[in-house]
Design goal:
heterodimer, A: 372 residues, alpha/beta, nine-stranded mixed β-sheet, B: 95 residues, alpha+beta, two-stranded antiparallel ribbon, 37% helix
Chain lengths: 372, 95
């Protein structure tokens, strides 16, 4: 008997006014014309609630790009689901915010690309920071909405993490999430420009620990370190097909944000199959569920129940084999690929201190485009 | 602004964005923005008492009355550590 999923990640659109260089969306973005209509999403939430889920995480793209977002939140809320909106804030105004709160929105997570406008707009590829600041004031003033500020960390802002935390603090959230870039989607494409150095990571961990101590009981700080510097892999998605389902804008159901990179996986669609059968029986969800797929050293490793062999998409991107041990693991046969990458980043940084780009530098990276 | 540390006179209540939901087997879960906490044993009873009106001292007393055969000091320690853990997760607020 397979335990039911805990949460649905509802990727309601790939449209987004931002063009962040580390966007986790797939390189092949779904067009507006492919997006599921309101009624289909409502049915998906009903099936999710019936399956025993607790949370719906509304994400994108930018979920606010959909005009029916408050209606979708209302449907999920009326089914008893906890509703979480993950947003850049662009598209929000006082009226829309009130409509979302009335619809039953439980929590809003707003991402900031930096604490400083010129860096933030540079990474987002759009002049949006000042507008987002104004919106954060609106959220703080609204009663009853839980608020998290999300900051994405990378080589070009990690040295300023202390001031970024002060910035996030000034926005008045209950939580701050500092997430290092994970190398999937557009971030994988731009990884050469984003991976921090070992020294930067070491200093940032100390900065976070100090802030956590200082803000204990007031603001909860969650920190996602860059796993390229870890000894063991992250328990990606808490294990493949163990807790989470992601429905993309067109209705394809994936075990995670990035799974579409794995070439021989076929994803079922909510238009053809109910969520329960996709969760319990679909080939994509069964493929890396449990331990039967595991190679050595995972298969006999005592950590296999903690990290579930790490991330399948990372294994594929780095080694070319989706069933390989996650190469960030120090025990992985392909760990040398990560070590070479890390060594290259660190030696370039030590010979060329100017390897940190600034908004005035020539732009070497690829911005995420708008889908059709 | 939230107070930093619990005291017997604090009035705890569930944090903003946190709510309790019953599940099929009669147990409760605490829904948080980033996940869930399954409330085992007396955890659900303690959380129910955190209504913003009772003080930590009131909650201790109520639980000591509910469980007269358990060492009152043990109850005190367990409740304090439980409430502190919730506070660190921002699952509790104080008035």
């Amino acid at each position: 008997m397979i335990s039911p999923p805990l949460a649905l990640i509802a990727e309601v659109t790939h449209r987004c006014p931002l063009h962040c260089v580390y966007c986790s969306n797939p390189l092949e973005l779904k067009a507006r014309a492919e997006e599921l209509p309101t009624g289909t999403w409502s049915r998906v939430f009903e099936e999710g609630a019936e399956l025993g889920m607790f949370h719906v995480h509304f994400t994108g793209g930018e979920p606010l790009a959909r005009n029916d977002l408050a209606e979708l939140v209302s449907v999920a809320h009326s089914l008893g689901l906890y509703t979480n909106l993950i947003t850049s804030g662009i598209g929000l105004n006082e009226k829309k915010l009130m409509a979302l709160i009335e619809a039953g929105l439980d929590h809003l997570q707003m991402s900031f690309q930096d604490g400083e406008e010129r860096f933030a707009d540079w990474v987002a590829g759009a002049p949006v920071h000042a507008h987002k600041l104004a919106l954060a004031g609106l959220i703080r003033a609204s009663i009853g909405l839980a608020f998290t500020v999300n900051l994405v960390a990378h080589r070009h802002n990690l040295d300023r993490l202390d001031s970024m935390i002060s910035f996030a603090e000034s926005l008045g959230p209950q939580r701050i999430e500092i997430a290092n870039v994970q190398y999937y989607g557009w971030a994988w494409k731009n990884r050469e420009w984003l991976l921090p150095t070992r020294e930067q990571v070491k200093r940032s961990v100390a900065v976070v620990e100090q802030a956590q101590e200082r803000l204990k009981g007031q603001i909860k700080i969650d920190f996602v370190p860059p796993d390229y510097y870890a000894t063991f892999p992250k328990p990606c998605m808490a294990g493949w097909g163990r807790q989470l389902m992601l429905v993309d804008p067109s209705g394809s159901v994936l075990p995670c944000h990035a799974a579409a990179v794995i070439p021989d996986l076929h994803f079922e669609n909510v238009k053809q199959k109910p969520l329960r059968s996709i969760w319990e029986e679909s080939a994509a969800f069964c493929r890396f569920r449990g331990e039967d797929w595991m190679p050595e050293p995972c298969r006999s490793c005592e950590r296999r129940t903690l990290d579930f062999g790490g991330c399948r998409c990372q294994a594929f991107l780095v080694t070319g084999a989706a069933n390989a041990t996650d190469p960030v693991c120090s025990l992985a046969p392909a760990h040398h690929l990560i070590e070479e990458w890390v060594a290259c980043t660190n030696s370039a940084a030590s010979t060329a201190p100017s390897s940190t780009l600034t908004p005035e530098s020539e732009l070497p990276w690829t911005y995420r485009p708008q889908p059709a | 602004m939230t107070m930093k540390a619990l005291s017997p006179a604090s009035h705890p209540r569930l944090g903003i964005g946190c709510r309790v939901r019953k599940v099929e087997n009669g147990d409760s879960v605490l829904l948080l923005p980033e996940g869930i906490l399954r409330l085992k044993g007396t955890a659900a009873e303690i959380i129910q008492l955190c209504n913003g009106e009772r003080t930590v001292a009131d909650i201790l007393k109520a639980m000591q009355v509910l469980y007269p055969s358990v060492d009152p000091q043990q109850i005190e320690q367990e409740i304090e550590s439980f409430l502190n853990r919730l506070l660190e997760r921002r699952a509790l607020d104080f008035q």
